[in-house]
Automatic annotation (TrEMBL):
InterPro entries according to UniProt: Cupredoxin, ET_Amicyanin
UniProtKB keywords: Signal
Organism field: Rhizobium paranaense
Signal peptide coordinates: 1-27
Transmembrane segments: none
Superkingdom, taxonomy of origin: Bacteria
Protein name: Plastocyanin
Amino acid sequence: MSAMNRKHALAVVAGLLAMMISTVAKPAEYQIAIANMKFGSPPATLHVGDVIVWHNDDIFRHTATARDGSFDIDLPAKSQGKMTIERAGPVKFYCRFHPTMTGELNAQP
Ligand SMILES: [Cu+2]
């Protein structure tokens, strides 16, 4: 490897490390409201380690339940529930009591 290539490779590695550190160091918290029997929009950018707070503003009990079983948040009327994103990739979710209520999270690593 020439000196030039080695320098370039080091810069790439340093950049990747900086990206990894910034992802780990700053988990974001997002709110998803449920109102009028509908899930609010999921966050446009989501990463593993981020926190989602589900707010049920309805007078009905709801759940935020992953189709792949990775989460199942029980949300009695006027309550909220918190969870941490543990894996990357798209996950469809729905409400166990009202299966027409659906949404999708898509976390990046
Ligand atoms: Cu529901």
